[in-house]
Structures are given as structure tokens and as C-alpha cells.
Amino acid sequence: MSDAPQVLLAHHLKALKLPTFLREHDKLARQCAAEGADHLRYLLRLAELELIEREGRMVERRIREAHFPTVKSLDSFDFLAIPSLNKALVLDLARGDYIGRRENVIALGNSGTGKTHVALGLGLAACQRGMSVGFTTAAALVHELLEARDEKRLLRLQKQLAGYKLLIIDELGFVPLSKSGAELLFEVFSQRYERGSTLVTSNLPFDEWTEILGSERLTGALLDRLTHHVHILEMNGESYRLAQSKRRRRTADAPPHPKPTATQ
């Protein structure tokens, strides 16, 4: 009978979905007793532990649902390698205020300059601040839209895409789009206009986007919506990946240091 309160407490905490309370309550009770903390401080500490762990689980869930190809933070980005990039602007964007204002971000620059890394870092920061994020490449998104249209589930997919607080569309410009694909992509931008933030990376300047979208009229309409409230990140420079590769080759080709000889 003496175990009944403990068993009932465990049952109730499981039913209330308070796993941190269940795991920590006994250990924390002993700590508070040793410190002379009253019952209010004990409950406060338990509640804080539960909130911290719950927020951590929510962040992990948002990261999974974003479908990032890999998780990268801005902490690991080498801003010195891309002098054209406005570091202060990137760090300000990481605060996420632009998402609340439904503003867009466009990262422009040649291949290998870290556009995807910055996009992933901003996406991760948004997840950590409690915002829903979706990540895809332009080619994959168009393929998914065309497939959804053929399978008569396009409206459901469009609703999902419109619902993200931040939608990241990577690599716009690497693959020319069909007329139908370009029109469906335009619909995504149009449906998100002033309703959610969109982050686009592209290796092409704006005046060459017609080559991907295939229509000056469509390109003009898309850019009109995308650039109405926008932050532009200029990321031109030497390929970040190429520079890393050169450094690795130089290190590999460097002659080994001679071993010191023993003195007599």
C-alpha cells in the first residue's frame, strides 16, 4: 500500500504527458529538501525542466518536418570566404523578424559560394524560434507539383506549401523548367505573396531568370511578387568548395617535415 501514491503519480504524469516531471520529480525533491527550497521553488524547477525539454522536442520535430538535406548552422559558415556577403544582414535575418513581417530573402551568387549553407542556417534558426519551415530544391518542387497535379492532389500540396512560415526553394536556375512546371512554380509564389516568407537561392542574376522560366511575362510577374518585400544577399566570389579543395590538395602535396635527428 505504501507504493500506491508513487504508482498513481506515475500513472497521472504519463496521462498528462509530463515525462520530465515523471523522470526528475524524485531526484529534484531530494535536492530541494537538501537546499531548504520550499514547495513553490520545487514546482517551478520541475516546470522549467519540462518546458525546456518540451521545446527541445518541438525544435527536433520542426527540423524533421522541414526535410533539410543536412542540418547546418550559421556558426559554421566562413563569412570571411565570401566578402560580398553582408554578415550583419544575415545575422539580423537569423532573428526571424522578417518572417513575422512576411518578407522574402533571395541569395544570389555563382556556384559554390555557400548559398545553400546560409539558407539552411536561416532555416534552422527559424525552427529554433518556433516557426514551421519547408526546404526543397526548385527542380524537386516542380517535379512534385507536376506529379501532384497528375494524381489530383495538387490543391492539398499547394495548401501545405502555403502553410509554411518559411519556405526555402534552393537552386533556382540550375535546371530549365517546362512551361507547365514554371506556371505551377509561379502559383506557389503567388499563393505565398504577403502570406508567408520565401527564401530563394539562385546562381543566376534576375535578368537571366527568363531562361529558366521560359516567359518574360511570367518572370516579370514572379519577380514582382518575390521582390516586393525582399532582402537580397549578394554571394559572388570564388567557389567556397573549390577553395577548400585547393587547400586540401596543397596540404596533401606539401613535403613531409623532416624528422629531427638525435644529437650526440
TrEMBL record:
Sequence ranges assigned to domain AAA+ ATPase in this UniProt record: 101-236
Pfam family, one: IstB_IS21
Keywords assigned: ATP-binding, Nucleotide-binding
Alphabetized Gene3D superfamilies for the sequence: P-loop containing nucleotide triphosphate hydrolases
Keyword DNA repair: no
Coiled coil: none
Biased composition (Pro residues): 255-264
Region entry Disordered, spans: 244-264
Domain of life: Bacteria
GO BP field: DNA replication
GO molecular function, one term: ATP binding
InterPro entries cross-referenced by the UniProt entry: AAA+_ATPase, DNAC/IstB-like, IstB, IstB_ATP-bd, P-loop_NTPase
Family: Belongs to the IS21/IS1162 putative ATP-binding protein family.
Name of the featured protein: ATP-binding protein
